Amino acid sequence: MKAIVKDKAEPGLRLMDVPEPSIGPGDVLIKVLRTGICGTDLHIRDYDAWAQQAVRAPLVLGHEFAGEVVETGPGVTDIAAGDLVSGEGHLVCGKCRNCLAGRRHLCRSTVGLGVGRDGAFAEYVALPASNVWVHRSPVDPDIAAIFDPFGNAVHTALSFPLVGEDVLITGAGPIGIMATAVARHAGARNIVVTDVSEYRLELARTVGADLALNVAQDTVEQGQRRLGLREGFDVGLEMSGRPEALREMIANMTHGGRIAMLGLPSRDFEVDFARIVTSMITLKGIYGREMFETWYAMSVLLERGLDLAPVITGRYPYRDFDAAFDDAAGGRCGKVILDWTA
């Protein structure tokens, strides 16, 4: 089968013929229909410092996907050939304290699909049935392919109650844009989104931001005044991983404000812990999705009218993966999709 592979310990990717994966008891074989390009995939293509530490070539990339079940292994009873599915890309041990307590998203032995083992940028992918999410309601395959990052957005945005709250979202990448749509759907009062890309700020406006603020030109404090906020933001969703973004968020939170942090910094940096203490601000780290409560919430949000279509801005046949990766890396985009049926 064809697959996009990090074949050597150097920058670049190749489209190669690789063996089709086999399945055993409890496994599911899936014909891939669509995949989404993630920032992780861009790091692996560039073979930066993180990728050099995290991956070993040869490796089939990809963890955002939707596909059709073609075969199930012995013991799989609730998934059938023909089902449209997505995959939870965090494979857990099932034996540690957190796994046994039903907190699989906190497993210390998590292995990432397309990072620690061969992934879904291929014509077929195999997964344990426990990592397969069946779409019981109709969903466009393009949307089903981005359930992984959509789950990051939902997990982050719904970490704290949003009804009637003033929300600050720092970082208008695809996940920040999806979080904006979720916050609007969930009943936030005012939503301010910050970035330095006018293209992505416009996407944020499209999905419901009350104010999309270019922080190269204006400050968050100025945004507060523009909306008439007197005491700061109730909820912060930090999606950028940028030191200056978190610092400005902390400086503009109300007393007792709550911050969910998904953006992954590239280095250590200082924050104003005195402000965090004296303002009694809550910081919560977010990684991945809660299995599978977040997935249930995602499906329900879509069933009740949440529209993610504006987030997808690029669609390419998988053979044009180089152009698709360039598009995703360029910054003037939302989510970029590879079509494995074209």
From TrEMBL:
Residues annotated as site: Important for catalytic activity for the proton relay mechanism but does not participate directly in the coordination of zinc atom: 148
Residues covered by the Enoyl reductase (ER) domain: 12-338
Cofactor: Zn(2+)
Enzyme active site: 40 (charge relay system), 43 (charge relay system)
Entry binding sites for NAD(+): 175, 195, 200, 262-264, 286-287
Cofactor: binding comment: Binds 2 Zn(2+) ions per subunit.
Source organism superkingdom: Bacteria
Enzyme class: oxidoreductase
Cited function: Catalyzes the NAD(+)-dependent oxidation of L-threonine to 2-amino-3-ketobutyrate.
Family: Belongs to the zinc-containing alcohol dehydrogenase family.
PANTHER family assigned to the protein according to its UniProt record, in alphabetical order: L-THREONINE 3-DEHYDROGENASE
Subunit structure: Homotetramer.
Stated name of the protein: L-threonine 3-dehydrogenase
Gene symbol of the encoding locus: tdh
